[in-house]
Amino acid sequence: MNLSTPNRRVIAGAVVILGSLGIVAVAQNTGRDDPPDRRARPSDVSNNNFHPHGLGGSVRPSKEVIIKAPLDGIIRSVLVDESDQVEQGQVMAMMDDAMQKIVVEQQRLEAESQTVIKLAKLRRDDAQITYENILDLKERKSATEFEVRRTKLALEQMVAELERAEETQVIAGKSLDLEQEKLNRYQLKAPFAGHIVRVIAEAGATLTREDTVLSLVALDPLEARLFLPLDLYGKIEVGKRYRLDAAAPLDRPITGTLKTISPVLDTASSTVQCVFTIENPGSKLPAGFKVFFMGAE
């Protein structure tokens, strides 16, 4: 449409008035299919030529667990404080295990005792001697067949009692292992190396199985979940390293390895969820900062 000079002046004046009122005019779509600047193009991955501020995501711990009381009882001691670093298997808290220790010691005595077995062996040996004597008497026609059978039956009974005593000791050993395992449950151990985030329970508190004692996170590695444009699907590869721009408080580029690409695409937002792992030896980097996808290294 051709505009005359007066019409151009009217339009220019309207723009000035709108600007003075704080109204921002938005240009209409020109009809081109080019994606907005904030979205990454496939060529961007190899050319490393964008920082869109729309391809960002939060960095989170790679593992995060809430440690609850393993059983109902009183918590005897808490051995860690918030922000402490712990190793895998380290004891972080202890439940009151006084009664369970008594049960374990009693079971240990039963498992290690040889008294019942020794007594059963003596009885078997005595029955064996009696049986051999009765056989000798039978050879000399001084014992009947009935006496031989009765003596043999007594011997077999003593052998069976010895086998039962030995089996009972094996069962006692298994019971000892079970009670020892129960005792170990009174210790709250770190399932992985990480940092204590919160300590909720205090020594002396009575807890149930549903009560939280503390929470633990793993900071090495870290994980960043980003929703990347579908344009990048098929252009980025799992296991490959990519540049990520870390926001405050780091304010510097870092490297992340693509761990997973979601098999489910979000067509509503035209994005796909990707998870990057960020190596963090010594857990020097905190969790919680934002990163932005930059492209391949």
Question: How would you characterize the overall build of this protein?
Answer:
The chain is α+β, with helices and mostly antiparallel strands and 297 residues long. It has three domains: 36-61 and 217-296, Beta Barrel (Elongation Factor Tu (Ef-tu), domain 3); 63-96 and 188-215, RNA polymerase II/Efflux pump adaptor protein, barrel-sandwich hybrid domain (OB fold (Dihydrolipoamide Acetyltransferase, E2P)); 99-184. The protein contains five helices and twelve strands. The strands form two sheets. It has a six-stranded antiparallel beta barrel. Helix 3 (98-112) packs antiparallel against helix 5 (145-184) and helix 4 (115-139) runs antiparallel to helix 5.
CATH topology of the largest domain: Elongation Factor Tu (Ef-tu), domain 3
Q: Summarize model confidence as the mean pLDDT.
A: 85
Number of E strands: 12
Shape: elongated
- Kindly provide the radius of gyration, computed on alpha-carbon positions and rounded to a whole number of angstroms: 39 Å
CATH class of the largest domain: Mainly Beta
Structural classification: alpha+beta
What's the helix-strand series?
Answer: HHEEEEHHHEEEEEEEE
